[in-house]
Amino acid sequence: MNLFNRLSDTDKPISAIDWYIIAGFGFIGFIEFLDWPYAIFGGDAGVYADLAAGWMWPERYGGDPLIGDPASSGPYITIIIVPILMAMSVIFDNPIFAAFVLIIPLICLQGSGLYFLGRYVFGTRLQGFALACATLVAVPHTDWQLYSTVLPRFIFQAYFPFLLLAFLHWAPKPKNWIWLMAGAGLGFYIDPVSAPPVGFACCMSLFAFYPHATGRWRIFGRQIGSGFAFLAISIPFALAYKIFAGTMEAVSFADATVARQSLGYTYYGIFNWLSHGYGNWIALSVVIGGAAGFAATWYFEPHRRAQMKFFAAWLGGLWFVAVPLVWLESELAASLEYQALLTQAIGGTRYTIPIALLFLVNGLFIVGGRVNFGPAAKHSPIAVLSNGGAVLSIIFMLIFTHSVKFYGHQPWLTHWYQFVPFLRTTHCWVHGDPLCARNDVQLIFEPLDFLRNNIEPNTPVLPLLSPTRTPDSQNGMSSAIRHYARLPVVYNDNDFGPLLLYGTRKGSYGWREWQKINRQVQGL
Hints:
Blueprint: H1 2-8, H2 16-33, H3 36-39, H4 43-56, H5 70-73, H6 81-92, H7 95-101, H8 103-122, H9 125-134, H10 152-170, H11 177-185, H12 195-205, H13 216-246, H14 253-263, H15 270-278, H16 281-300, H17 305-336, H18 352-371, H19 381-400, H20 421-430, H21 436-440, H22 442-454, H23 473-483, H24 496-502, H25 505-521
């Protein structure tokens, strides 16, 4: 009984059990880190590692279309992940390994932040812990997941719960708004894709703290001023971007259109993205369950309505930027033939998922508290066990319905651990092989070591095909040649974003020609 009381106790802000939970999330980050070589090659993380390597060792990349010309990658230097990788590479001598070390603190911060958010909103450690665990599992096609590599959106996910906590705690006093919105503006340096919708959502959430009677116009003026603070913080980011963009020959609107089409449903066509992301029954179940939990909380726990208004206003602001505003700008860009700036902000809708899970978890606890002998027994051992079982059922559902399959195991039902990244490493431990993921890619390191030790800098090197089953093997090997072997690459399919959306006209033309050749070679 004492354990259940401690789980529900909120008298002490931080106690021993909180530190145990934080350490637990750190341990999850550690075992995910042990899986590092399986995930280090390719993808967006490989691009950021390439950019960091290009800025650290520019003399080695002459002729490389992406990092051979600093102007091609200049805008990315303003995003915090590239300077972090450069700084950590001084220690680890490998940008992507440096990135993977960050998995440990990021998973710890995300899990701990959502734990404290759930505990702050609903008052119990058990609900906070349930929320944090649920948000460690991916919701397919929504971009909300526990990433196996460090990306700007993963860093922002770790920052996100603390930002909401700060608003919930300090926003009731309007004098704090300017500092809170300045903190939201820092998001531009973490993930410029997430910052606009999340920042506007934070600004809209301030409506929830308006006075009931007098002073509304004065408070509105303070809100407008805090919005300008948000924009002011972003000015250095915008200036740095403009300075680098000014050194480049502008990419034509036609080439930018090719890039957006290459990105596919994710960033080209808002309604395609929404139907793909939220048209599957898993994401819909989470959103509908969150809405039901919101309604249950509003009805059964009226003392929480002030906080609920905050979340409702926050979600309204998020979706306003991510959907109608992005659509409007894309239409203007198409008619006026300029590159749309907010194209990727549609991805900001991913932050709907943790808010939906927040209320879904609370809805389950409300039902459990009323089924188990009425409201007075909400925190009884029976109620806690039944609620915990309901929450675990939701997590179980998310695990078993995840659409991504690692290793290609069939039937996938008997290899359920593959759907939660850190459980892959745990499975290796159980079978007596703590480094199985590392052994799986050992063949990749051998040719990379040979290239690094035997080929002179600035030698054009064609990308190799990976000899393993690593996902995106060709793109991954191409990136690894850059940041691990420190040699230029003639073509990497994954370069289309940096080159076509933000790079030089010369680089974009080169990428398009190599794409045609590559697809001919592959018989596509």
